[in-house]
Model the fold of this input.
Amino acid sequence: MDHADPKHPVAAPDSALAIFKVFLRFGARGFGGPAAQIAELDAEFVERRQWISSARFRRALAVYQLLPGPEAHELCCYLGAVRGGRWGSVAAGLGFMLPGLALMLVACFGYASLDLASAPVAGAMAAMQLAAAALIVRAAWRLTRPILASSTALIAAMAVSCAIAMWCFAPAGEVAGASEVASEVEVAGATSAATTATNAPALFGHGLTAGLVTFGGAYTAIPYVATVATGADGWMTRGELLDAVAIASVLPAPLVIFGTFVGFRGAGLAGALAFTAGIFLPAFAFTLIGFGAIERLLAWTPARRVLDIAGAVAVGLILGAAFHIVWEPVRGATQASAQFGRATPMVFLALIIAVFTWRTRLAVPAIIVGSGLAGAAFGVMAR
Done:
């Protein structure tokens, strides 16, 4: 029963299979990272399908912001539970993550034979990074717009938390172990030095630990993963870890899908699945175990004002962290500037116009794929 949202009466529960199909389609177009994915969840399940209200969505986001795990994935599990109970929660979470998991596994198998430093591949990656950044800008606007139309207190809470996050969050390229990581080897030019150095059970444990330290976003898990995977007893180079994050950032998946790559470098396919299971397990478990408690919290009137403010704070934190992700490729700290030079801001502006004006269901994958093809062609011509 939807205690927290009387204006949205509860429909008959959907089957787990129906929910799985809905989120599988949603996951296949979930490009742009957590900010974009959360905004798309709002657009799809609040505005279009009207499963819950906008206020309840923001309150649920506030609750999950306080818990470890990828918020977009946890919100999918929550929406699935609202619509189909605990099996609906599992179906939604699996549907959302499977497209990205499949694509990351393809990337894992192709990584050794792909020359990431070649002109077409580097151009494609650079263009797709700019496209992902443009999607984040659109997502930021979608998340901010409802709060700007609300009270001054919520606007102030969002602004303050955004400023704090902009100051605290390190740029994406420096999180994995500070600037010395990037200085060891470029993201696009790392060479493989990994061996089968561990086993699937150990990788599951490492993934579970990483999943339990992802407070405030997937980037917070990278320091731990860097320590165990690239340290003295590790099984991959730091350059490979940066490659994993770069690939994950342009896939339709939660950013923590980089863990699939980490597991694969440790123990092949079994390691990839084990690390993935571990890093996603907390995101499933919190909703499966605590859905009733979350619903009671959302329905408790005294908590609503606190959760409204916490929701605004959560949006501000997302905006602040997203700022660095957007700014890095535009200002030239990543390979985008090396590929497009002074034209980088103009390319970025064109992509922003495209993501704001092209509103069909296929717009996001078309823009990502089209950017990759155009970037590859540019890389070949610019040699």
Notes: Confidence is low (pLDDT under 50) at residues 6-10, 171-196.
